Hints:
It contains 17 helices and 17 strands. By secondary structure, the chain is an alpha+beta fold.
Amino acid sequence: MADTLTRPGLVDRLATIAGARHVVTDPAALAPHLAEGRGLFHGTALCAVAPGTTAEVAAVIALCHAEGVPVTPQGGNTGQCGGAVPMAPGGVVLRTDRLNRIRAVDPLDGTITVEAGCILADIQRAAAEAGAHFPLSLGAEGSCRIGGNLSTNAGGLNVLRYGMARDLTLGLEVVLPDGRVWNGLRALRKDNTGYALRQLFLGAEGTLGVITAAVLKLFPPPRPLITAMVALPDPEAAIALLRRLRGAAGDGLTAFELLPRIALDLGFRHMPGGVEPFARPHPWQVLLEGAGPGVPDAVQAALAQDMAGGGLADAVIAQSGAQAAALWRLREIAAGGHQYQEGAIIKHDIAVPVGRIPDMIRLGTAAALDELPGTRVVAFGHAGDGNLHFNLVQPPGMAPDAFRALTGAMNRRIHDIVTGLGGSISAEHGIGLLKIDELERCRDPLELDLMRRIKAAFDPAGLMNPGKILRPA
Length: 473
Ligand SMILES: Cc1cc2nc3c(=O)[nH]c(=O)nc-3n(C[C@H](O)[C@H](O)[C@H](O)COP(=O)(O)OP(=O)(O)OC[C@H]3O[C@@H](n4cnc5c(N)ncnc54)[C@H](O)[C@@H]3O)c2cc1C
């Protein structure tokens, strides 16, 4: 109430810009926009507004800037670090869901121009309808929005070949923290005209402005395709296989996902639809995919060679689209939120040089067990990119809060190992609220100083998504 009193008429003025039915103040309707999926963070806001055009976004931001009102952009709210949770009292959540137009598809140039609120899966579909392929793909693609993907520099399943969101973006349109619109919607592959401003907004988690539209790269459809799951004795064998496949198929290898036994076992326990892929259980699995002329044959030959040499324990190659989907379903089962049904989880989204993945798993597991015997380590994910989701699941029967109380200590142990291996404490999810302390601890003070200066240059009033990535000065 005090917040509305200090900014009389703000909600009405927002309603004048976006339309009254696109401004939400009712507590029940506002609630989903104040928290994130895992329930780790609960925020506060005066209202949520959903502008329908770039001009409306600009007007909302200009008004908030003039009134000194903090703004938190929110896409699908599937982020894993609390970045879209509004924390400043009296602030506004700016939802992007009405910015949902595909503005243009240009198969010749290999580009698609989309508004920030487009759902990722809709963009994939629009590209496919035009005979092209948009390769950004992740578990939340049915609900995350491209503005959120770009603002977190999302990774996902195809980074090995196509890179992260940053690599897929040619141009951006951004509403700056004072309401001015920067039109950088260029569809150019070559453009050496000074600083690459768009790179600053990619991965900025809404702290430097609101992305309203983007020009994204399209690719030829991946054909022919091979999808396989292989069984391995240990992570060393997985990395040896990766080396062999890269040699055989080059960047025709599009996905290489590492899954430990425990991830499948927990998935089978809690999620329907999973079937053990092999005649007997194996300690490690890799789900891999390759695409392009000659790639399936090259991958099959490499797998046969590894099998003959004893590096592989078993392999299943999908013979149809349905079988490929069933293998990908196993990846989903292994990674799903079902791990929460086992109690509390302490998650890490880390990257190390690919060759150090076995060291990371060995050292990280030892550290977690040293901190608390009985901790269940579920280290899985995009191993081909050096990216692991290093989840620590509480021992059975322990009080979840007692396990959660170890979060700081576990984080420090795991992140120190990551840093020692030359890695990153956030591979693809970002910093948000979750990792501010660890960013400060693990990053070079000079880098932090440069980041603070960039933030101050773009947003001197500190109104764009305050409290995220960096503590307010
Ligand atoms: C099941 C599941 C699987 C996932 N798998 C992956 C994965 O493989 N790889 C991966 O990278 N992530 C993954 N994620 C995390 C999440 O989906 C991504 O971070 C995604 O990019 C977030 O998009 P969003 O639209 O939900 O963004 P939100 O959560 O709404 O926002 C994320 C951040 O971006 C900011 N933001 C949102 N829109 C804008 C905008 N238009 N302009 C400026 N800032 C904006 C927000 O303020 C916030 O800081 C997964 C999540 C789930 C639930």
